[in-house]
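This section describes the prediction task in plain terms. A model, or a person checking by hand, is given the sequence of a single protein chain and must write out its three-dimensional structure as a string of tokens. No templates, partner chains or ligands are provided. The sample shown here is typical of the held-out split.
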Amino acid sequence: MAERRERASRLASFAKLGVGVAGQVALNRALSIFASAERKVELDRRTEISSAAQVAEKLGQMKGVMAKLGQMLSYVDVGVSDSFSSNLEPLWDSLPPMTRELTSTVIEESLGAKPEKIFKFWDPEPIAAASIGQVHRALTRDNQAVAVKVQYPGIRETVAADLSNVKTLSRVMSVAFPSMDTNKIAEELRVRLLEELDYRLEARNQELFHGFYKGHPFITVPAVIPSLSTDRILVSELAEGVRFAEITEWDEEQKSDAAETIFRFVFRSLYQLNAFNGDPHPGNYLFNSDGRVVFLDFGLVKRFSKAEMDTFESMIRAMVIDRNPNAFREAICDAGLIPRDAPITDAQIRDHFEGFYATVMEDAPFKMTREYSQQLIKHTFDTSSPLARYVDVPDPFVIIQRINLGLYALMARLGAVRNWRRIAAEIWPFTQGLPATRLGELEHSWLESREGR
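The expected answer:
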């Protein structure tokens, strides 16, 4: 209670700084956003990081690559107990934070001054602490409420050391899947994970998505503040919404709206931006009860060429629209997923891949369930499949596999029900179907307004 009174007092003092009516309105709006973006997690101050020397010890155990694997285990249903996965949920956004002094040092090294000098108001308590950095609220000198992501010192060295484990994993996988070029897979993962450490690159990724979705009725990508962003600091608009743990208590329609928004974002981005934001874990979203979702993290983004997008299209056409097993075989051979001379039938190939398209195979409501999510994961790593000894995973499919392993697992946790086929048909450029839902109508109007500019 005392902390709330102190915060209210601080905010009230800043309200007096406004000059003129317009300035006061803008400041009050920023303060309102600032105040509503309350901390939703309790960070463990007993284990906070006080020096870069502790990064290898504490972050090596809990952050970096290992934390990302833990994040996936917390929501991707691989058959572990609910208690085990729930114990991993703090990896989303509530890992031990840096001390205030260390955070201030990182900002001073990057921006040339302590945060209290850079910002009009700086909240030293982080609102989230995850695998690579932690996030603070602040007000800029021109009265804008912002989120400030601060990278952990030494995390680059920690991640580089962790990546040796990825190579070990590739050697293990090569035994079970002898046709798979696991070294190429490991290299693709290595490149993508190292890209996450460059906040300038993440800023460019975020600006790409923000520019495309600007004005969207239910998808929000916060704008980046370039003048305050560096390779270790990323400053963007402060967004409002609740965390994933809270929406699991919402009613079924609200949860399905949230899942539909994420589905539309992923596939609209893929087919119109030719880009995939490849880290769909629960800590990367803020939710609103009317279906609006804020997308927060753009460190792991994969861009696709026209040829790669044409491959995805040919696979969907053959499997889902034309239901042609022979054409599907040709498509996946062209993609490099299996060799042309593999001694397996068209029917075996169809049976192996059909589960990945189950959400859009039929023009009917489909419920995302834990059983479906589990089945996908088991099928992905099924060494007893007739295709196991022949299948490969070319570069374009390494990160996009997160749709099957991550996105659908997330939607299964919400028990989302929609006619995904009709929603997908709105988005696929080769079908361009009519709006199928309330959100579809809103998005259709937004797309028309874009074309009319």
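For orientation: The two ends are 50 Å apart (CA to CA).
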